[in-house]
User: Fold this.
Amino acid sequence: MIYKILNKEEIGQLKEELSLGLPGTAKIYYVIRNALDDKLSGFEVIVDNWPKWNCILLRPESTDKVLNYFRQTHICHTKSVSALKYFLQRPGLISWNQPINFTGVPSDVIPVLSEVCRKHGGQITSKESRLMYAWSKSSPPDMPKIPEGVTLSSLKPEHAKILKSDWAAKQGNAVELEGYFQSVIEKFESSCLLDSNGRILAYICMQYNGSIAMIYVLPEFRKEGYFDILISDLTRKLLAKQDIAYGFIPFTDTSLINLSRELGFEWVPQGNMTWTRYTPNVHQRRQKAASESDVSDVFSNNLDTLLKSQLGVPLVNI
Assistant:
């Protein structure tokens, strides 16, 4: 078997198997659940073998079936570093002549992924590895007192333009961001704080992998305790649905790690991950496209912080 594209029934079986590994499998479990529930549409779910799999890959069926934000996204999960190395090189699995954003990649897999990408003649860049921290207590966090004149609410689709404005400079893909934010606001839980005029003072929302991310507090309110209110509220919402409340923290950021522990979150070693960008060699891409044209005449894209809004650095993981 070169690889297998799962049908809906098989995806359901995969979801049930992944649920047994929670919270360590949360980053792939929620992706699979969202795909099964049509909240993450347009992706194929592929395994190296079935039913005894070692590797999972979600790739777009085609660029017109997924959100623009996900056009170059490939979501990975593996039980074995060596298995992933050979899986990614199976014929027809990856189109190496196009840019790819690999997400969900365990930190110890990065050297192998880098080796495979370079073998295909492209450039590889990776973000700083992240640690997964999840709410570990049986009871929800206490809710801090909400300041007078401030209302605790949820984000609305019309707020997507505001979120895009806050994040566009960091992400560099403003055109795609508004649609992405509108989608996560419509499909997943969120929390925000509004003043008496309805202006957003702070917010937090979810990612498609089930993680808490995109925390932002207006600079003038970053010492008002809004951060604790948002984290506590969204965590309570997720726990009420029997979901895992978790997010990702850069492994060198000891201040955030300590703060997350103080709030009740604990490190989940199996959830560590990073994001990697593969960019094919331009000359190679042109050469391949020309070759294909001659032969057949065919036509020739997250919490970078879980707890960082008080420091005033808006980041994202996805």
Summary: The two ends are 30 Å apart (CA to CA). The longest helix spans residues 226-240.
